[in-house]
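task queued by scheduler; priority normal; single chain, no ligands, no partner chains; default sampling; output format set to structure tokens
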Amino acid sequence: MSKISILKFASAAAATLVLTACASTDNNAKKLLNPDPPGKMYASADTYLAQGKFQRAAKRFEELDRDHPYSPEARRAMVMAAYSYFRAGKFPEAIVTARRYTTMHPGTKDAALAHHIIASCYFEDMHGPKNDQTNTKKALQELQILKARYPNSKYARDADNRILIAQDTLAAKEMEVGRYYLKRRNYMASINRFKVVLSQYQTTKHVEEALMRITEGYMALGIKNEAQNAAAILGHNFPNSPWYKDAYTLLQSDGLAPREDTGSWLSKAWKNFKLPTIKL
């Protein structure tokens, strides 16, 4: 091929690229100037959601909110984008979008759903007691906010069980750390962890063991009146508990018996809760 032919071919190719780029730019400009009507955009996003194409649904809902911010569909689209991100497992995106909704539309009927989405993201990303509990704490906080602000919503009713599970997980973490210190004879550090369970998570199943471990820790420190008091509270509230039998046996080994001290910090802090049942 001659140099002239090559130059002609290159010029033609360049012209084609320019025309293609111009056409693409022109199409994008037309799309921005003339987006689909909000009803059509909402319907297509809803279809993606029904088909399980959650990320595509989220993007389409966001496009609706961006292109038609003052339309009746836009507000609903925002919270549905958050829900779609949640279903896609994109928790950070779901949280950001749902928080944006609660900031802009705090008094609307879908605000409870937005808070539910935020709480659900943290709840679904909780870890066992051997791991970091940051998300568990955030889940509990969001669930309590949901209950306080929207007590009559269906999401608030669903939150009750999740609150119990989150509290139980946090209590289990405190017990895990408390046992760690107890095994290493760092008795005050262990007692302080068990105190957290008694003061903050009294409605969990861990309170019985916590009272026993406090008895054990105070006996090791020689603070026998506090050990007797912890065992007395354990026996009063959970007389059939195997942990009470262990505490009673421990005191008997030193010629002691459970005895409540009403002036003790533990007696003042303790309240006789009925333990709720976690529904599975």
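post-processing summary
- The CA atoms of residues 97 and 208 lie 42 Å apart.
- The chain has two domains: 38-168, 174-269.
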